[in-house]
Amino acid sequence: MGTSLPIYVQTQEIEVEELSDSEAGTATQILTSGGLGCAGVLVRGVLGELETAGGKVTINIYDAADVSDAVQYYSVELDHTTLTTTSDSLDPGVPILADPYITITADATADEKEYNCIVYLQKIAVRG
Question: What is the pLDDT of residue 126?
Fold first, then answer.
């Protein structure tokens, strides 16, 4: 039997110029660095950077853009109370066969701050 090595997807950084304290009804598609969709992946975590320390940010990942009809696969609250950069990781990861979409929501303290996020994705084999 052959050896299997994980293949990670290089995703585009998601930039939010001004966070909101209410979740958006429409999520943003997570894209590769080449601008392609990312279907057939394991969500392995996220890295978030808040403009200044103070506040918490919730990151949700769905299987569709319309949050009201989408399946939520991943949710994490990143605590930026004392650190501007923090992350979360999952093992073994959560599989999403459709293109993943993301929402980023602030608490009252992080509201209106700038935020940058990178999603860690690992490619999985999908056989149809």
Answer: 59
Per-residue confidence band for 84, with pLDDT thresholds at 50, 70 and 90: very high
- The two tokens of residue 112 are 């209106």
Q: Where are the domains of the chain?
A: 7-123
Degrees, nearest 5: CA angle 36-72-69: 90
Residue 94 CA to residue 37 CA, distance in Å, equals 17
In SS3 terms, 66-104 reads as ECCCCCEEEEEEEECCCCCEEEEEEEEEEEECCCCEEEE
Question: Could you tell me the CA-to-CA distances from 48 to 30, 53, 58 in Å, in that order?
Answer: 14, 12, 10
Report the percent of the chain where pLDDT is more than 70.
94
Q: Residue 102's pLDDT is what?
A: 97
Nearest to 35 by CA among 18, 13, 15: 13
Fold of 7-123: Jelly Rolls (2.60.120)
Contact between 114 and 16 (Cβ < 8 Å): yes
